[in-house]
């Protein structure tokens, strides 16, 4: 059985805690590996390596850092199929989707290649006579990234690309459910020229996370995962004096107005609800259909479902893989099982006709869903599309805005004026206009509102650079006899 260990100071280091977790192939339900769970002492060892590597990395000139990032970009690009198959084997998503994940992660590395430009500060000459003022951005020190199972390659790239570019050293704690890709990336980073200790991976569970949250040498924590844990990470990390950005769960709505192109809307709903088996924080979970088009729209979604090829991610013909674990599959199935009793209508039941092995659930539709039902109030994180019928645009927007989450949202319409009003009205961080999964490109930043994000910084892009740096303002004067005098008054501009 494969044993998955830690990556400390540029080398694989076997765990010593005698605690570990099981890693499965979700398409077969067969255990493929065991992953070491770090003890407090092992986390301390990783952090110490990152502390030691920080002074030299911080002093490395910007051109060299950019050169290394270009090398990482080339290596990730060259090995993208291999990265995709490593992650697909443990996550279950189909290869084409996994390659898409790697490509979106790569964008963040490409963004970080521009670090010499991104770290430019401001300069004001002659703020006072003979006095200049300038601002600089400096790294924080050792920063940690704690990541979810659903994007085991992309989400770490959201974090470490900018963190390293800014001169920080990094400790990654990947999901214990699909940890192999993090170690694969660690080896690529080493090949790219990242010095030992600058990028480290510690595997583990709550013990490792809690130590990172309280360790005095961790300056900042980036987290992506479920809302209860995100809130816990934010509260515990900030209580311990750390800068924290903690992205949580979601319940994304897609509002379809009567003037929308219904075929385009149905294609989008199917792609966004069932892609990656619904295990995306930007997946569409709720289809808000304005009454007059609801029946037609549901029919169009329904007729597309039989064509979706569900099966192991390793078969390139498949379009949708299994869920991550047996427990998660059972939880998703419980929403379908309980829906009728709550008053919803099961239009397509994805529990029917599933493969005998593995953690599969097929695409499902629940109609006549309403707030107050479990399937509406909770994040399902599976291939279940809830249809909520609304009478008007205003009713749809009110529902979106009263939801506890505010990650992504989409509007389908041909009316530019309504679309513009929608972007003005909605309390959601990422908005798609006829775009169902509006994950921002890497030169913007990613982040939801409300229970989808705890902290002040969105992730990656310009906000990522701000998160991973501290600014310093220098006020300077050079000796000039004409401007020197004794003056005990408070300095004012002259
Ligand atoms: P999760 O919250 O269970 O785990 C995320 C990380 O936290 C993992 O590394 C895990 O080991 C750690 N963790 C889990 N329980 C912990 C605890 N009690 N104490 C300390 N650490 C703990 O999330 P997941 O199931 O891996 O991922 C799915 C969730 O992530 C969904 O809710 C999804 O919406 C969310 N997500 C959000 C975004 C976003 O950008 N907002 C992106 C991807 C995923």
From TrEMBL:
Listed Gene3D superfamilies: Aldehyde Dehydrogenase, Chain A, domain 1 (3.40.605.10), Aldehyde Dehydrogenase, Chain A, domain 2 (3.40.309.10)
GO MF entries: methylmalonate-semialdehyde dehydrogenase (acylating, NAD) activity
GO biological-process terms attached to the record: L-valine catabolic process; thymine catabolic process
Domain Aldehyde dehydrogenase: 19-474
NCBIfam families documented for this protein: MMSDH (TIGR01722)
Protein's name according to its UniProt entry: methylmalonate-semialdehyde dehydrogenase (CoA acylating)
Organism: freshwater metagenome
Matching Pfam families: Aldedh
The protein's Enzyme Commission number: 1.2.1.27
Keyword field: NAD, Oxidoreductase
Organism placement in taxonomy: unclassified sequences, metagenomes, ecological metagenomes
């Amino acid at each position: 059985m494969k044993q998955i260990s830690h990556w400390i100071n540029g080398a694989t280091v076997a765990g010593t805690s005698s605690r570990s977790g099981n890693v499965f192939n979700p398409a077969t339900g067969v255990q493929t590996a065991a992953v070491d769970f770090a003890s407090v002492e092992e986390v301390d060892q990783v952090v110490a390596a990152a502390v030691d590597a920080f002074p030299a990395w911080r002093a490395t000139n910007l051109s060299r850092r950019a050169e290394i990032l270009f090398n990482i970009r080339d290596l990730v690009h060259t090995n993208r199929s291999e990265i995709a198959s490593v992650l697909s084997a443990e996550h279950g998503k189909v290869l084409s989707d996994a390659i898409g994940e790697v490509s979106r992660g790569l964008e963040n590395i490409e963004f970080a290649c521009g670090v010499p430009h991104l770290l430019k500060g401001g300069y004001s000459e002659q703020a006072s006579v003979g006095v200049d003022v300038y601002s600089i951005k400096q790294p924080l020190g050792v920063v940690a990234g704690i990541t979810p199972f659903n994007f085991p390659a992309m989400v770490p790239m959201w974090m470490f690309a900018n963190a390293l570019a800014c001169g920080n050293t990094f400790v990654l704690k990947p999901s214990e459910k699909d940890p192999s890709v993090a170690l694969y990336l660690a080896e690529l980073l080493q090949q790219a020229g990242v010095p030992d200790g600058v990028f480290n991976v510690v595997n583990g569970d709550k013990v490792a996370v809690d130590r990172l949250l309280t360790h005095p040498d961790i300056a900042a924590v980036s987290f992506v995962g479920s809302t209860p844990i995100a809130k816990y990470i934010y509260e515990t990390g900030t209580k311990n004096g750390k800068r924290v950005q903690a992205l949580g769960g979601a319940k994304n709505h897609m509002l379809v107005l009567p003037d929308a192109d219904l075929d385009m809307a149905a294609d989008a709903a199917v792609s966004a609800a069932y892609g990656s088996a619904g295990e995306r924080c930007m997946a569409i979970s709720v289809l808000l259909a304005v009454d007059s088009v609801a029946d037609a729209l549901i029919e169009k979604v329904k007729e597309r479902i039989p064509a979706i090829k569900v099966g192991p991610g390793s078969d390139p013909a498949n379009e949708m893989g299994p869920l991550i674990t047996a427990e998660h599959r059972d939880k998703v199935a419980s929403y379908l099982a309980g829906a009728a009793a709550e008053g919803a209508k099961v239009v397509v039941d994805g529990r029917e006709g599933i493969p005998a092995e593995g953690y599969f659930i097929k695409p499902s539709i629940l109609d006549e869903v309403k707030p107050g039902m479990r399937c509406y109030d909770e994040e399902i994180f599976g291939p279940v599309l809830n249809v909520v019928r609304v009478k008007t645009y205003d009713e749809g927007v009110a529902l979106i805005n009263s939801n506890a989450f505010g990650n992504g949202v989409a509007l389908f319409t041909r009316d530019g004026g309504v679309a513009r009003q929608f972007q003005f009205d909605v309390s959601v961080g990422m908005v798609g206009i006829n775009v169902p999964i509006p994950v921002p490109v890497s030169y913007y930043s990613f982040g939801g509102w409300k229970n989808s994000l705890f902290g002040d910084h969105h992730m990656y892009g310009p906000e990522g650079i701000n998160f991973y740096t501290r600014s310093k303002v220098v006020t300077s004067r050079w000796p000039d006899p004409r401007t020197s005098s004794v003056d005990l008054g408070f300095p004012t501009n002259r």
